[in-house]
Write a structure and sequence with these properties.
The structure is a single chain. The chain is of the alpha+beta class. It is built from two helices and 13 strands. The chain has helices spanning 36-49, 100-112; strands at 18-22, 25-28, 66-70, 74-78, 81-85, 122-128, 134-137, 149-155, 158-162, 172-176, 181-184, 193-195, 210-216. The strands form three sheets. Strands 1-2-11-8-13-6-3 form a seven-stranded antiparallel beta sheet, with helices on one face. A hairpin with a 2-residue loop joins strand 4 and strand 5 (81-85). It binds N-(carboxycarbonyl)-S-(naphthalen-2-ylmethyl)-L-cysteine and fe (iii) ion.
């Protein structure tokens, strides 16, 4: 038998449940796992009303990530720029309501990350099929940065790139798996970030894709 220690509750090869990635950025491993089924049911209901689509960047490139939104505001991109809009430009209707399980998870994760009272008004749904990537960028369209962004990873794993305040800052690689939640607040809120191409695979709950939810206070 080995000496009892601080990490007796973990398997030998286990990673810590909570890990600070940077000032204000906290990875909550498996935080959403128990609610993954309910979250994915919510995703299906939202997507039935506001189907996934490949947005076009202001520069004219089709994004490889497929996106939709729920909540009072949704993030959209077209030739005229990036913005938050109350309506789905494809249907002209308001974005679907944010499922209650989404709002509860975002609030409880933000609290666990040190932010009490998070009431997001936008949830961006990103779908990555194998080969899909998201190049290094900042999230700056929300207009104010006092609240964190809470991200939830479901389905296939991905390697997340987490850089610094400048595009040229060296990025750390953070593997994210099904059920992981990250709270990005404080100084990390404006850091550059991206996602490496998702590897081939099949997940029992999502099939051949990764779904990422990002909760934001945009209005
Ligand atoms: C770090 N999505 O939708 S979530 C995005 O996995 C986006 O789909 C990625 O970047 C995805 O804009 C990453 C993690 C994330 C989201 C926002 C951040 C990390 C962040 C904002 C600041 C710093
Ligand atoms: Fe982002």
């Amino acid at each position: 038998m080995t000496t009892p220690g601080l990490f007796d509750d973990l398997e030998d090869d286990a990673l810590p449940a909570t890990q600070a990635l940077a000032s204000g950025a906290v990875l909550l491993r498996g935080f959403a796992r128990a609610r993954a089924g309910a979250l994915l049911d919510g995703v299906s209901k939202v997507l039935a009303q506001a189907p996934l689509r490949h947005l076009v960047t202001p520069g004219g490139f089709r994004m490889s990530v497929a996106m939709s939104n729920c909540g009072p505001l949704g993030w959209v991109s077209d030739r005229s720029g990036y913005r938050y809009d109350a309506n789905d430009p494809d249907s002209g209707r308001p974005w679907p309501a944010m499922p209650e399980v989404f709002a509860e998870l975002a609030d409880s994760a933000a609290r666990a990350g040190g932010f009490d009272g998070f009431a997001p008004d936008a949830c961006l749904i990103n779908r990555y099929e194998p080969g899909t990537r998201l190049s290094l960028h900042q999230d700056r369209d929300e207009g104010h940065y006092d609240w964190p962004i809470v991200s939830v990873s479901l389905g296939l794993p991905a390697v997340f790139l987490f850089g610094g305040g400048r595009r040229s800052d060296k990025a750390q690689r953070v593997p994210l798996v099904h059920g992981d939640v990250v709270v990005w607040g404080g100084p990390s809120r404006l850091h550059y970030h991206g996602v490496l191409p998702v590897k081939d695979g099949v997940h029992p709950m999502t099939g051949a894709c990764r779904i990422n939810l990002t909760f934001r206070k945009a209005g």
